[in-house]
Sequence to fold (646 residues):
Amino acid sequence: MTGRDAPEPADLTAPPSPTCRSRATHFWRSPADQPAWGRPLLLVITALAGLAYAWSMNQAYLEPFYGGAARSMAMSWHNFFYGAADPWGTVTVDKLPGALWVQALSLRVFGFHVWALVLPQVIEGMLTVLVLYRTVRRVAGAGAGLVAAVVLAVSPVVILLDRGNIADSLLILLLVLAADATLRACQTGRLQSLLWAGVLVGFAFQAKMLQAWLVLPALFLAYLIAAPAASFLRRVWHLAAAAVAAAVVSLSWMSTVSLVPQASRPYIDGSCNDSLFAQVFSYNGFSRISGARLDSAACNHASAALLTASAFSVREGLGTFGIAASWDRLLRGPFGHDDAWLLLPTLVAAVWLLVLRRHRPRRDLLRAGVILWSVWLVLTFGFFSGIEFLNSYYTAALIPAVAALCGMGAATAWHRRRSRAVRGALAAVTAMTVAVGIALVPGYVGIRPWIVASSVLVGLLAVGILVASLRKGHDSVWNVSVGPALAAAAMLLGSVWASSVVVAATLSPFDSPYAPSTVNRYSQEAAARFPLNVQLLQAFVARTPAAQAADVFETSGTTGYYILATGREFLPVGGFSGRVPAPPLAAFTRLVAEGRVVRVTVTTTPLTRTPDLRWVASHCRRTPIHQYDPVERATRTVFLCARRAG
Fold:
């Protein structure tokens, strides 16, 4: 059979023939309009993904700042609503609290446990697998949906993300739901579906702010091209309504909180003027792109100790702070280990599908899906390549697009597998993808021989069968079915190995597979020390004579760990960055006068520039208790403040 005889990709969107199965099926059985193997395989994939996310979840590394905030929010509904970073509710977290709301609810239901903080991300990750399957199946069939689900489930950066307490898990789930609603609107022409997509993007904004808006051009372009509405102006009007819905939902909580008097709510961290809009659009917006720090007359000057913290991370190779912005930033090093395994076949699939569908009618749903996911991938890749500050787990936002395009490309290739041109191209892409996968694994990894051997073996077998099938008379069922199946396995193998390393080594969202031990050691050591440190802190709190008094430290980043471990107030000064005027000096001295602040740790060498702590250094009694911090190259001294000091 030649390529001209192969079924058109449009057949992928046609529902399979109905079977005699009853419509009242159990949840593990496929509906009558889907293949019998579809839902059972999907449930197996989802269960295995959930197992990878939840493996050793009670020993997971928790990001202490967000963990402490979630525990503080779980302690009262006032703290919950405002996203307070500490139990007294003196300051908020430095981001919108959407994802923390889910974690705080989990803590209220189950009590404080490490697994209770991780559980929401595990569930969100599993739901994302299910929703992505439905989204891709809608435009390309059940086979494409299953491939997309597998690619998402075995992507190491997704597994890393869902093993911690980071907001991006909820962001990605909501954005994939928005993509599904958009394609449903393209299919049915219902404005309600498009409006729901805008609302979902607004909810995603509550989880990760401006990053949620990054996918709007992808959603809107797909609808503008493929929506059933015949009039171009009508489609534009629909998009304008969806944009308004997204903006209203995005800004609703910010606007509501901004109407509350400042004395009745926590100070807004990440802003110099107690403004949520400054927090979102400046501190978490333009400053993330440019790398600039908070800069306003209302903000304190950062202490030398705080300024050296990020420099230490770069010098010691901790995390990904030292990787400068560049076009190939996501293709090498820790970022490459996270996301680059299937970028090559993704690019080939996107270009090939757009070429195949170039003459199809405007409303072609498969092409709309390709456009949506391609624009999503290009915009996200470009944004992450260019911004100054990039955590490794951010790149998980690329993977739904990678998975969807791989799924649609694989299904189309399978339907056209009797074409010799398709099999030849598949052999070439397989060989290149395996080569990229091997190149991504550094030489110091102890299991590299096993990775290389298995990848080469499966890759050579797949390529050999595909090349042999190109000879005339060799297009047997074996050659045209086993070869493509082995090719898919060979291309997935690199990602599977990396994901296995993630689970076996119990890595966290701040880690990367195959990264040097100096890069991954901080979060792993912190997770291992956490139970012991909790016991020590709880014993320390039990010996504290003034139960209502709070120990004071500079930055909520410092106090977050103590709050997470004990659930007790450790008053942060200066917010997360140490620069915001929280609490104000008048409020701080009032706390001292009331006896609610007694023991204060002050950076004395060099002397902090934070007004509250400089006041402590000149008005409170200096103790001989001090400690030198080699990380920040600073000496911290404990001061005792009496009631009369106010």
